[in-house]
Each structure stands twice: as structure tokens, then as C-alpha cells.
């Protein structure tokens, strides 16, 4: 599968990989890469950088929303090969090193095998390296508070729950929120379209996921770039409220810890 690159604003690109997205921010010749897909998405990462007129050498930093393998896939490759710093929330740094692992287990998948698309999704995850041991050797916490001095001037916003250190990235000037897995618009195992939470078994702490919707709702923006699903246009408050309503009416169960 080739990566699909969609320009959503000046210097901002949403890229669809293998059932997961990443975002490229471009300022002149310099790039910021937010998330890096599965390990098997590496050709797509490189293709997408070239498609926007860039290269791995032009990536000033990799920002990670959270350290699951479908978002962390090529972070260590870029760090070790090109010296690209990999930044995360301080609470997510040890997760990226694999000091511990907060993600759905094989048992969680088996208990949710009734969901539409679960078996093809699980087979796909294995194929693209989703179950590999894939740490970042030297991840770093954000170098400063507030807007980062990187292309796009992204502002990390701590939205814990999916993992303890999950962050979304706000682009205030463009009215864009890069939401990772805190708020998505679709998933291979969901029959729902539009703003939603992932099925609950994917989350480390479902209650905190729901609470973090308040933080997203308070961000000024009308374009959501999720970790899964297509771009969503509309106010952040309305998107967060729609996801909360859907979760309240019948989302997946809280993940066992």
C-alpha cells in the first residue's frame, strides 16, 4: 500500500498509511513529522516526505503522540540514521524506551473478536510489525513548554488516558488539532464514522480518555487530523461532544490494567 498524502492547509499534510495516519508540517525546506506509522510503513514515510518536497535529512524533529507501535514505527530509524530528535511528553518517554508497555494484549483482541474487521485487522497488525519490540533508544521530553521551535510551531497538549503521556498537537494559527488516538474519525474495527473514541479495550485508562475530551474541546480549531480515519472539519467542541456522546451510549469496555 502506498501512502496517501493530502494537503489540508498551507504547509500541513495528513498522510494515510497502513490503517494509521501521520502528519507532516513544512516551513520552507524544513519539516516536522508527527508520528511515524507502523514499522512496515517506513517506505510510506520516506515516500510521503519526498512527496512534499522533503527528505529524512530535512526533518527537524519527530513528535510522537504516544508510544504504540503504529505511531512509533520509524522513530528509532530516523533517530539512529539521521540524528533526528524524537520528542514526547515526559510521561511517555519511558514508554517509548519500552521500560513498560501500555497497549492492548492478545487476550483483549480475543475477547473482542466479535467486532467487525477484527480478524483482518489483527492479521494486518502482525504483518506490518505491530507486535515487534520496537523501542526508541534515546527519546527526549519536549525541550520547552508551549509552542515548540519547530516547523509549524506545534503546541503539545497533554491528553492522558489512551496512554499516560498521550499528547495532541495544536496548531493555533492554522486552527488544526493533530489528535493521535485521543479522538479519531474511524478505525478498521469500528463501524462508526466521524468523531469517536477508539474501542475501550485499546485504552490504558478509559475514564481519563473521556476526561481528556474536555481539553480537546477547549482548543481553538476547525480541522481535526486524527491518528485513524479521515480529516474531520468542524469545531473541536462539537467533535469532542459527539465522541463523548457515542462513548456514553455504548463504547467498548474499559481495558483491564
UniProtKB/TrEMBL annotation:
Q: Which Gene3D superfamilies match?
A: Ribonuclease Z/Hydroxyacylglutathione hydrolase-like (3.60.15.10)
Q: Which CDD domains match?
A: yflN-like_MBL-fold (cd07721)
Give the signal peptide, or none.
Answer: none
Sorted alphabetically, which InterPro entries does this protein's record hold? Answer: Metallo-B-lactamas (IPR001279), NDM-1-like (IPR050855), RibonucZ/Hydroxyglut_hydro (IPR036866)
Q: Which GO terms describe its molecular function?
A: hydrolase activity
Q: Where is the Metallo-beta-lactamase domain?
A: 19-228
- Ranges where the record places region Disordered: 237-257
Pfam family name, one = Lactamase_B
Name assigned to this protein: MBL fold metallo-hydrolase
Amino acid at each position: 500500500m502506498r501512502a496517501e498524502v493530502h494537503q489540508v492547509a498551507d504547509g500541513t499534510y495528513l498522510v494515510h498509511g497502513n490503517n494509521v495516519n501521520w502528519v507532516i508540517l513544512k516551513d520552507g525546506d524544513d519539516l516536522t513529522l508527527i508520528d511515524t506509522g507502523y514499522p512496515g510503513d517506513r517506505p510510506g514515510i520516506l515516500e510521503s516526505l519526498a512527496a512534499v518536497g522533503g527528505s529524512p535529512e530535512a526533518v527537524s524533529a519527530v513528535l510522537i503522540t504516544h508510544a504504540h507501535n503504529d505511531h512509533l514505527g520509524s522513530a528509532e530509524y530516523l533517530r539512529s540514521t539521521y540524528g533526528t530528535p524524537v520528542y514526547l511528553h515526559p510521561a511517555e518517554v519511558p514508554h517509548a524506551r519500552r521500560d513498560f508497555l501500555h497497549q492492548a494484549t492478545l487476550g483483549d483482541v480475543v475477547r473482542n473478536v466479535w467486532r467487525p474487521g477484527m480478524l483482518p485487522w489483527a492479521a494486518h497488525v502482525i504483518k506490518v510489525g505491530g507486535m515487534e519490540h520496537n523501542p526508541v533508544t534515546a527519546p527526549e521530553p519536549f525541550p520547552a513548554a508551549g509552542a515548540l521551535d519547530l516547523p509549524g510551531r506545534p503546541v503539545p497538549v497533554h491528553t492522558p488516558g489512551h496512554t499516560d503521556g498521550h499528547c495532541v498537537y495544536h496548531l493555533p494559527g492554522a486552527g488544526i488539532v493533530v489528535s493521535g488516538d485521543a479522538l479519531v474519525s474511524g478505525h478498521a474495527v469500528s463501524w462508526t464514522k466521524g468523531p469517536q473514541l477508539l474501542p475501550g479495550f485499546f485504552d490504558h485508562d478509559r475514564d481519563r480518555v473521556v476526561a481528556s475530551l474536555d481539553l480537546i474541546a477547549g482548543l481553538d480549531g476547525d480541522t481535526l487530523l486524527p491518528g485513524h480515519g479521515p480529516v474531520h472539519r468542524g469545531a473541536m467542541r462539537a467533535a469532542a461532544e459527539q465522541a463523548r456522546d457515542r462513548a456514553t451510549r455504548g463504547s467498548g469496555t474499559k481495558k483491564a490494567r
